[in-house]
Amino acid sequence: SLLQETMSMASHMDITVDITTEEGMKAGAVEVIKTVRPTWEQELVEWKVFSDGITNKLLGAWCRDKVDMVLVRVYGAGTEKIIDRKVELENMKRMEDMGCGSKVYGSFNNGLCYEFIHGEILTQGMLKDKVIYRSVARMMAKMHSVQLENKKVLLWDRMEHFISCCNPVSDRLVKEGMTKDKLRVELNMLRGLLENCSSPVVFCHNDALLANIVVKKKTEEVIFIDMEYGGPSYAAFDIANHFVEFVGCEGELDYERWLPSKEYQVDWIEEYLAHRGDIMQEEVEVVYNMVQQFMLCAHLLWSVWAVIQAENSDIDFDFVDYALQRFREYNRWKGVLGMVGEEE
Prior knowledge:
Layout: H1 2-9, E1 11-13, H2 22-36, E2 45-50, E3 57-63, E4 65-74, H3 85-98, E5 104-108, E6 111-115, E7 120-121, H4 130-144, H5 155-165, H6 171-175, H7 180-194, E8 201-204, E9 213-215, E10 222-224, E11 231-234, H8 235-244, H9 255-258, H10 262-274, H11 284-312, H12 319-336
Parallel strand pairs: 1-5
Antiparallel strand pairs: 2-3, 3-4, 4-6, 5-6, 7-9, 8-11, 9-10
Helix pairs in contact: 1-3, 4-10, 5-7, 5-11, 7-11, 8-11, 10-11, 11-12
């Protein structure tokens, strides 16, 4: 199977890295590095702690030459409830084979070890640059053109699973009507609306936020990283999820400022469609309209995800506030699309 091939390419190490302390994490990461880079002289290994993600802990190591930097990613507490780590490894291998992702060096009991891609994380300041955003559109088209053996859409089961795992008991959530029953009503409404839509089911990243896109400096090519949510879904969902993430995740999420204009989205979609070699030309307007609807799925999904994180994560981040902001935007966007009151 693909997984067996993946595992032979990338060996598994029976190491569990302690994430409760920085020292423990470093000690565990040292063991991982000794295995994947046995020739490195340990006293010359340098380390960098990355703190971009709000799910996992990430360390980078290199010896003399920063070109070969190895990343050690330790999974966050409780994430195994909502992420299938075997699938993540398969996804990374698939992306590596296509030239869209990092090389995987190995996995350990609670994490992964892989190549650091040199470049810059996509930032809000780069979003207006046509060269860069068209490069993102092309890379997404390339990823969406991968052959899929299994076309079972992940989205609905994942949302259902997230809702069953979440426990919206905080007063702040209850006050705004974020109950499990309400979330299920919304999910059923979305499923009824979109399950049989015309958007093709493709291999999606499913989490193409800015911090998961690296721009290579010289070529302005982009690479997608962090494949933990990757798998079959609607192409329009992947695009919608990318656009709503322009807002970032810190502080007040100002969607009215950051959500790209129709003109921007249409230009992006035209570039994307021109590079989807495997499908009939879809109408740009049809894709655009579907993307607007799938933005609702993105908001609901990550709102529920944040409720789960609020309970389980030991990362210093106000997940409840994030959940509420995404849920408010979900409701606002339903209004913009003229869908308020339909589900009563």
